[in-house]
Each structure stands twice: as structure tokens, then as C-alpha cells.
Amino acid sequence: MASEQQSKSDKSKWYRLDNAALMYSAIQRNTYSAVFRFSAVMTGKVNPDVLQRAIALTIPRFPTFRVKMKRGVFWYYFEPNDAPGPFLKADISNFCQPMRAKEDHDWLIRFFYYENRISIECFHALADGAGALTLFRTLLAVYLRELGYRIPAECGVCDMSASASAAEQEDAYQRYAGSVAAHGGIPRKAYSAGGTPEPFYTLNVTMGLIPLDALAAKAKEQKVSVTEYLAAALIYVLLERQRREGFQKKLPVALAIPINLRGWFPSDTLRNFILTVSPSVDPNLGDYTFEEIVTQVHHYMRLNVNRKLLQARLTGNVRFQRNRLLQIIPCVLKNPILGFCYWFAGVYPVSATYTNPGAFTVPTEMQPHIQRMEVILGQPYGNRVNCASISYGNVMELTIAGNIRERDIERELFRFLVRQGLKVKMISNREE
Amino acid sequence: MSYCVNCGVELDETAGVCPLCETQVYHPRYPVNHTASKPFPTNRAEVSMASRREVALLITVMFVSVALCCGLLNLFLRTQRIWSLYIIGAVLTLWVWSVPPLLKNIPLWFRLFLDVIAVGTYVFLIAVDLDGINWFMGLALPILSLLMAVMLFLGISMGGGRSILSGMTLVIGTIGVFLFGVELFIDFWITGAYHPTWSIAVLATSAALVVPLIVVRRVPNLREEARRRFHL
Ligand SMILES: [Zn+2]
Fold this sequence. Notes:
The structure holds 2 protein chains of 2 kinds. Chain A contains 12 helices and 16 strands. By secondary structure, chain A is α+β, with helices and mostly antiparallel strands. The longest helix of chain A is centred in the middle third of the chain and has 20 residues, at 226-245. Chain B has 3 domains: 1-40, no CATH class; 51-132; 162-232. The longest helix of chain B is centred in the last third of the chain and has 27 residues, at 164-190. Chain B is flat and about 90 Å long. The A-B interface holds A 29-31, 90-94, 97-98, 100, 114-115, 200-201, 205-206, 208, 247-248, 407, 410-411, 414-415, 418-419, 423-432 and B 4, 7-12, 15-21, 37, 39-45, 47, 49-51, 228, 231. The complex binds zinc ion.
């Protein structure tokens, strides 16, 4: 009865898309969606009935995920989704499929189980990694509670007895948009790590499991963070790949690395609040050693990730969104324009995306039940690969996922890490 | 546990090959475990090409409504002639060109075959309306047959991932031959004899273009150079 009332009162509620969601909704089509996936590999086999119950209990607590996307005249918007579900499904091998309108009751999140693994797939317009992980962490806690364990609501597990606060639903971009806007220069074409396209719809995923202490020690040797170390390794591998291809003209290798802005601008939002920075190395200046790349990435991050610059860039993005001329263009016509902007600023000058949401923390009571965490950045925009990593306990999980047949990028990356003296265990969804 | 002898990475106990380099796993003391479950599910979810079917349906509906409107209009407007057949024929031709490729993965040669048949049928209908069976049989049919032969040749020989160089060579050569044939048929239809003029120039031009291409294709060094300079 209470939930019925709630769904009725929700009817009038709707959400404007935040700044990042605008882009993801504009490039959304039946054959492409920006989707990412988080998985928790539990210590025991997943009980689907209990997990379904946990999902049904958890989702109403998170109104920003309980939505469907609707097209207005000028912009898309989110509307509460009162359809039954989302329903837990047995997992499949081609992850992160596009989110299609009118399929799956318009849900923009999906849940899967396979053996010990619980997975959540989320449309990027709903939330960024940090937001989705908060939902996921809470879901895991509710699942374990349903199994009879006592899990406290701390360490990032949301209090299920409280309802969603306004702070969790805010558009933090709007809140922190200041008065000074930064305009990025003209994007420079970057090396595109492409290959033979796989048939629609295939996502080749290769994961490497690395002991975190050894990896952190390696990064510390170079006096950089683990993210910077792995980003440098990826750049190194892509530079080598370009050299192997042997063309005279060499393009810079640039990564897009999303930065979680919550660390710089306090916010409890569960929606998007990220900006990407783009460290790059130009091979035309000569051959870089790995150490030089590490230094370059490290200093780039130190120089570009600071409150002032991030706020100016964020303001620039929000101003673009508030531009009257852009606003009055009908949604249908706006999509190609925004799509081009996305490509021109986010794909053309980028070789690959690398995201590291960092360490996944849970209350002590949950720790014995979770073996490791996994992350997959779904279908890339174009034929290329994406890279993502997440750590839990002493396991750093590093994923290369893409829709190209070649496997040389993951091969060279993991071989490189092995050569550095790290122990890597591989798992993959590629058919043998 | 097994390690890949090539990459040095630890492998899953269920892995038969290394996921990085596809080297077979062989470890006498730890044979591959075929009974344990794989790290990821192996069943693929089929993704329907819903969008394509919708587009096909939309195009079909649009064409049908155009054909219907014209057919109805013809009942009231200039009823002495069945002018609507021209539009209906054109719409049918466009439908054959656009819709079947959206629905199924029809082989290219068969699609080209269908396309030429559609054009042929349209021209035939026009000929019937204009009492032009003579020119249809004498001129249009030979040219269309040649076009079909040329298309089939191109469709078959271009399949199977040819290089850009060979592709260009084939297309230019075929165009030259086709235009030569066109003049031949026209001459025979008008005068009953063959007096080659402009098509010789076309043929010579295409030969002049094709010969260097073949040379470049045959000589490996030149070919490498061309590939480097003209790569897309
Ligand atoms: Zn290997």
C-alpha cells in the first residue's frame, strides 16, 4: 500500500538530464548505448530468488535509477518508471547490449547472475561509476541481509529505512557551475586503436587479476598513483602498436580518463558528476621509454586535475547546455549536433578510454562474502577498445573490452605487466 | 594451475587456450578442467536488428501510400492515359533497391541482379505504354543484359576482400568495356553497322588508367609505396 502511494506521488516528478547525460542520450540509438557493468564475485553461489527479492527491495530506494527516458520537444528527460521489474536474468556472454526503447519495460538498468557473480549494467545517462557503485553496494548489503547476515548501513551502504535525499538526486554540475568558463582548444586527432570489427553485437572482454600490493609497490617505485601507472602502461602499449603498424605519419596517443568530481566538489549525488582529462604522448617527438611516459602522465594529472581548472571546464560545459540557440533546436535535430560534438571532443582526439573507480569498500561484515569486483566499460563508440579497472581487497581487476577481433592490445598490455614482475591471472569471454 | 608458456600469465583451470595468444594449454599435472563452469557464461543473447526492420517497414509504407495515391488520382485526372503506372513502376524499382538489403544479408551479386531486373521491368512497362516494344527489344534489352552481366562480374569479383588497387582496376576496366558495348548496341540499332567513335576514346582512357594500376599491383615495392601514400 505504501509503495503504491509512493508511485502515485512520483508521477509528477521528473528529472532534467545532467550535463553528461545529455551527450549519452544524444548518441543513444538502437545499435549503440553507453553502458557500463559492475560485477561482484561472491564467495558462494548466487541465489537468484533471494537476489530478485533484494532488487525489488532496493530499487524503490533509488528514484534516480527507477526511471525511463522520454523525449521532450527540446530535450530528453527522465520520468519515474512504474513498470514491474527490473528483473534478474541469467547472465549472457555478450555484455552491455544497447538499451532499446520499449524493450525490457524501458528499464535503463539490468541485473544478471552467473555462478558466483552478480552483475549490474547501467545506462551512463543515469549515473556515473560512483553513483552506480553506491546502488550496487547497497544491493549487495540487502542481498546479504536477505540471506540472514547482519550488515550495518555504513561505509557507503545507503540506509534503507530513510528515503532518498534531495542531495542524492541533485544535478551537481549545475550547482558548481561558476562564472568563469574554460574553452578547450581545437581537438587534435589521436591514434585510433582500431581493428577488424566483430559482428553485431559482440563485446570481447579480457580481464586480468593482479595483486594490488605488488602493483601499488610498482607504482610507488615510480612515485605515481596506480591509475597513473596503468594509464602509462596502456599508452606505452598503444605507442608500440602504432610503431608496429609502421606508417610514416605518427599520431599522438591520448587517453580519456574520467575524474570523479565528488572528490573536488563535495556532493552526494548518485547521478553523473565526472569530467574527463586526457593525458597524451606525441611519438613525433621521439621514442619514449616507459619511465618517461609515467612521468609525463603523472605531471599532466598534477597540472590538469585541480579545483580551479575543473570548475572552469565544468562551467564551460554547463554554459554550452544553457546556450539559447542550442536549447531551441528541436530534440530530433539536436541529437546529430550533440553527437558530432561528442565525437569531435571525446572520440576523435582520444585513442582509448581508461577509467579507474578506485578501491571498492564495504562494511567489515560484508567482506567475507565478496571475493572480488569487476568492471566493464561497454561498447566503444567506433571500432576500438576501452580499459577499466577496479580494486577490492588485494585484487586489482583490469579489463580490456572492445568490439574488434584482434587481441594484441590486451596481449601486449598484460605481457608488459608480467615483464614488470607482476603476477597476472587471465579470464576472458572470448570463445575458444 | 597452468601458465601460458608464451605470455607468462596464469590461466583459469577451465581454459583450453590462452586468451591472449591462443596457445594451447598443456600441463601434464594440471589437465584442463572440462567439468567446472567457465569464468563467464558461454550462451550469447541474440540481438535482433529491430531498427533495420522498422526502417524497412517505414519505407514500404511510404512507397505503398505514394503508389495508392497516384493510382487513385489517375481515376479522376487525365483518365485517358494510365500515367500513374510510371510513378508506381518507379516506386517499385526504388523499393527493390532499398528494402531487401535492409532485411536479410542477401549476397551482393543477387542484389545487383534484382536491381537490374527491377530497372528492366520498369523500362519494359514504359515501352509497352509508348508502343515501343521495338526499341525495347532492340536497344534497351541488350544494354540492360550487358549491364547485368557487368554488375554480376563486378559483384562476384569484388567480393572476398580485394585490395583497393585491384578494386579500382576492376571498376575502371569494367566501365570501359560497358560503355564500349553501349555504343556498339546503339550503332547497330540506328545504322545496322558498327562505327566506333567515342567509346574507343573511353576504352583507351580506361586502359591508360588500368595499365599503371596493374603495374603497381604487380611490382611489390611500388605497391607498398602506393599503399603507404594512398592509405585511407
Ligand atoms: Zn598466451
